[in-house]
Specification:
single chain; 237 residues; alpha+beta; 5-stranded antiparallel sheet; 5 strands; elongated
Length: 237
């Protein structure tokens, strides 16, 4: 049997998790907090319920909910710890494999809780000329500088990855089309210089789920739009 102090403590914990639901903007935090608070409240409510079989149902339901939520947390932490380790040594961005896993994770989350996200595909203009004229060492410096500039000008919870060569991908979780356009416009005003070359960006954007339900379709769409932007000579100046 639970004593008064234990019930008070459990209700306090449940209240804290309910508070996190309203405080946090992240849907994952809200979901986990809701499950934790539900589990604790079920256990506390079992103290005041009769007959005994209902008491047992509420108690076991509470413990099962808490156990399930804890397992979800462990798996999520394991997932993100692996993602953090998959960094591109040159730019500090996520590798292609790591950013792909994040995109697939957002797709699965979108299927489950109907959340949208956006994907920016970014390519450096004039990068080949710098590589050809000054060598790969200079190109490496430009890539690192470009990655730092992009990272400074996206949201703190956006995820930047190096797709390959001079191509980068920005994953924007829970962002609408308007917010993605704002970030694109912001990036489009940036430049970096190396010797006599001005480095600018060509950007294409894909919206989930409007532009596709798979990573292949989203990357293909954003890549095509990036080339359309370049062909229109709407490079970032």
């Amino acid at each position: 049997m639970l004593g008064i102090f234990e019930i008070f403590f459990i209700c306090l914990i449940a209240f804290i998790f309910w508070f996190l639901i309203f405080l946090s903007r992240d849907s994952w935090v809200r979901t986990v907090s809701g499950l934790y608070s539900t589990g604790f409240l079920l256990i506390a409510a079992s103290k005041f319920i009769s007959p005994n079989y209902l008491k047992y149902i509420f108690t076991y339901a509470g413990y099962i909910t808490l156990s399930y939520t804890l397992l979800m947390n462990v798996l999520t932490i394991k997932h993100f710890r692996r993602m953090v380790s998959l960094k591109d040594a040159l730019t500090g961005c996520l590798t292609r494999a790591a950013i792909s896993d994040h995109i697939n994770y957002e797709i699965k989350k979108g299927e489950r809780i109907k959340k949208k996200f956006n994907l920016l595909f970014i390519d450096l203009n004039n990068f080949k000329q710098i590589n050809d004229k000054y060598g790969h060492s200079a190109g490496d410096k430009v890539l690192a500088k470009a990655a730092a500039i992009i990272k400074e000008n996206i949201r703190k919870y956006d995820i930047l990855g190096r797709w390959g060569g001079d191509e980068f991908v920005v994953l924007m979780p829970e962002a609408g089309s308007a917010e993605a356009q704002t970030i694109t416009d912001k990036l489009s005003k940036l430049t970096a210089e190396y010797e006599n070359f001005e480095i600018s960006l060509s950007i294409g954007c894909a919206h989930y789920p409007e532009d596709g339900y798979t990573i292949e379709k989203l990357i293909d769409t954003s890549d095509k739009r990036m080339y359309e932007s370049r062909n229109r000579k709407v490079d970032i100046k």
